[in-house]
Amino acid sequence: MTRTTSIAAVLSARIAAACVDGPFTLADGQVLDSYFDEFRLAGDPQLLHDVAKAMHALVPAGAEVLAGVELGGIPLVVALSAVTGLPGAFLRRLPKRYGSQQQIEGTQVEGRRVVLIDDVVRTGGQLLSMAHVLRAAGGHVSDALCILERPLGGRVLLDEHSISLGSLLYENDLPASAGAAS
Fold it and tell me: I want to staple 173 with a disulfide (CB 3.0 to 4.6 A). Which of 8, 122, 150, 182 is the partner?
């Protein structure tokens, strides 16, 4: 699963518009000077559609379910599901505390080949955690996709756990002012 140079050339400047300068604190406490704001991408229907169309080429043959990680992966799964015709599942970081009390919502994953979807991959820890959740529910997870891959070890970590990462863009595809974080 690789992305084509033409995708990077066409979408990188548009996606870079979703990169924001300013301090941003990650869950681990690290503070970034700029970050990728998935809400700007998700809030632009044409860009979201175009990204989903481009990501369609990355979906591996035989995929049966697309599973979006909260929160950045959810709009991507909805858009990618509309483009591919594949059903979607939605992953919470923690099980819901009320109502259904589910951690996986949407389509059932048991016995099915599931592709994890997220907006940005940095260290890969979040995707790996969600792969464990899906595998515990009986899903077969061997692939993950993202819009933007940062070179912080995510690909290596996922590969160590038999998960292949497909990325639409890499940090160096973004204009220099947009490529410093997230």
Answer: 8
What's the confidence (pLDDT) of residue 3? 45
Euclidean distance between the first and the last CA atom of the chain, given in angstroms as a whole number: 23
Judge whether 130 and 166 are in contact, CB under 8 Å: no
In this prediction the pTM is 0.86
Task: Say how many residues make up the chain.
Answer: 182
Flag whether 103 is marked binding: no
User: Is 119 part of any known ligand binding site?
Assistant: yes
- Which domains does the chain possess? 5-178 (3.40.50.2020)
123 annotated to a ligand binding site:
yes
